[in-house]
Amino acid sequence: MASVPCPECGAPTSAGELCDECYADRLDVLDAPDEAEVRVCSNCGSYVRDGGWTSHDEPLPDDELAVSAVKDGVRLHADAREPEVVVGVESRDPNVLRVSVEAKAYVRGYSVDDEASVRVVLDRRTCPTCAKRSGGYYESVVQIRAEGRDPTDDETERALEHAYGIAGRDYADRDTFVTETHEVRGGLDIYMSTSDAGQQVARRMTEEYGGVYDDSATLVGEKDGEELYRVTYAVSLPEFVPGDVVEVEGNPVLVTNNAEVLKCTDLRTGRRQTFDDVNPERLGNVRDAEYTTVVSVSGDEMQVIDPSTYETVTVSRPPFVDARQGDEVKLLPTRGNPLPVPNKNS
Ligand SMILES: [Zn+2]
Ligand SMILES: [Zn+2]
C-alpha cells in the first residue's frame, strides 16, 4: 500500500490527509460564543432558560446564572473523548460578567486543551408573572357568601387557605396566584389569576361546608389569540352550620354537619338524625347557651333556674344531660322554655 505524507508534518498516512496528531493539534475542541445574555427578573429572580421563564423559589446568585448560561452555550467537538470542562467567573460588573471556559479532552488518542472567554450580560427586567401580579391581573373572582347570614370567620379563613394553597403548593405553577382579596358586605371576594384556580376554591368550599356555587363568565378581551373570559364563582354556603340549633318537623335539633345532608342531634331524645330537603327554622346557636344550676331532678324532667328570668322552670332532661341537683347544665334561651344543650359543644 502506498504511503502518502501528511501535508503538515510529512508523517506517513494512507490517503494524504492530516495525520492523527496534526488533526488533534488543529482541531477546535471547544465551540463557545463570545457573548451570552441571561434575562433575569429583577423582582423574583426567575430567568429565561430554553426559551421560557423558570420557576425558582430561591433566586440564583449572578455568578451561577452566568456560569449556567455559558455551560448551556458551549459545545464540544464530536471527536472529543473524555472531555473535562471547567467554567468559572473571572470578573464581574453589576450586569456584565466575564466567564472563562477551559476544556481538556482526547482526540484520536492525543491530549488536547482549549479555552475561551465569554462575556455574559445580565438583562434585568420584569418577568411576565411579576408584571401580571403587579398589574392586578385576574381571571376569576370567588365570592364567598352564605344563605341568610354572613360567612363565619372559620369559613372565610378556610377559603383563603384554599386559595393560597392552590396558588402556592398545589399548583407548582407561577401563573397561578391570588391577585387580591376583599372583605365585602356579606362575605369575601378572592381574585385569582386563573379561572381554574377560582373554581377549585369554590368546589373545595362547597365540598367541605355544603351549599352550592354558580359560575358566570364575562368576555374581557383576548389572550394569546384566544378569547379571554373572567369567571365569577358565586359560592352560597348553607344557612345552617354546625352549632346551630334549629327546629325540624317540630323538634329542636343541634346541627352537627350540613355539607350534603342535615346531620343533627335531637335535643329531646339525644338521637342522631339525618334530614334531606327540609326547611329548618332557626332557634339559636349553642354559643349563646348559658350555664345554670339544676334545682331538682325528677325522672325525665328537671327544674332549673332560667338564666334570663332567674325563675325556676321545668324543662325536659334529655339523655345527654346527666345532671343532679346542684350541677351546672347548659341552656339555650328560646321563645319558650330554655332548651338543654350538650355541655361538650361549649
Ligand atoms: Zn502530521
Ligand atoms: Zn418575576
Could you describe the 3D structure shown?
- This is NMD3-related protein.
- Pfam families: NMD3.
- InterPro entries: Nmd3, Nmd3_N.
- One of its GO terms (molecular function) is ribosomal large subunit binding.
- It is a single chain.
- The chain has 346 residues and is α+β, with helices and mostly antiparallel strands.
- It has 3 domains: 110 residues, Immunoglobulin-like; 102 residues; 102 residues, no CATH class.
- A 5-stranded mixed beta sheet has the order 12-13-11-15-14, with helices on one face. A 5-stranded antiparallel beta sheet has the order 19-18-17-16-20, with no helix packed on it. A 5-stranded antiparallel beta sheet has the order 23-22-21-24-25, with no helix packed on it.
- The longest helix has 18 residues.
- The chain is elongated, with a radius of gyration of 37 Å.
- The N and C termini lie far apart (105 Å).
- The relative contact order is 0.08.
- The structure holds zinc ion (2 copies).
- The site of one zinc ion has 8 residues, from helix 1.
Short account of what is shown:
17% of the residues lie in helices and 45% in strands.
Strand content: over 45%
Q: Unreliable runs, pLDDT <50, ≥5 residues? A: none
Shape: elongated
The major sheet is characterized as: 5 strands, mixed
Record the SSE blueprint.
Blueprint: E1 4-5, E2 12-13, H1 20-26, E3 30-31, E4 35-41, E5 48-49, E6 52-53, H2 62-73, E7 75-76, E8 81-92, E9 96-107, E10 110-125, H3 128-134, E11 140-146, H4 153-170, E12 178-184, E13 187-192, H5 195-209, E14 212-223, E15 226-237, E16 244-248, E17 251-257, E18 262-266, E19 272-275, E20 281-285, E21 290-298, E22 301-305, E23 312-316, E24 328-332, E25 339-341
Parallel strand pairs: 4-10, 11-15
Antiparallel strand pairs: 1-2, 3-7, 5-6, 8-9, 9-10, 11-13, 12-13, 14-15, 16-17, 16-20, 17-18, 18-19, 21-22, 21-24, 22-23, 24-25
Helix pairs in contact: 4-5
Bound molecules: zinc ion (2 copies).
One zinc ion (ZN) is lined by residues 6, 8-9, 11, 18-19, 21-22.
